[in-house]
Amino acid sequence: MSEAVSIEQSCSDLGALGQELQQILNQEWSPVSPSYSPATVGLSLVNQGDLAGGLIGELLLDWFYIKLLAVKPELQGQGFGRALVLRAEALARDKKCTGVWVNTYSFQAPEFYTKLGFQEFGRLPNNPRGQDRVFLSKKF
Fold it and tell me: Where are the domains of the chain?
């Protein structure tokens, strides 16, 4: 490594860093895809005017990634999480995505996703310690 090159922790403006990194990636991805620019999608679950949950996802490189899904405990088990995922799937289909993918944890919700037709494609053991991070996808 050249003495003129250093590695520094970036904490102040991660948005600007992200934009710069996306420009670098766009140069590498241009033969495969028009750009490496995730489009963020948000779905809110509103109960009597209050936020009760939601889903945040990203459309990127022909797949929809479910980044966050949460429903308040008092509303869990009533089909709201399922409805959010199905709505995200509909958005992904409209955008001509190949499918949807998610990562969750062994103590959290893998069965929730398999009931919706997702299939496990990978595991990262001991993440967190004693548990696994589970990767699932649903191809259309």
Answer: 1-37, 38-139
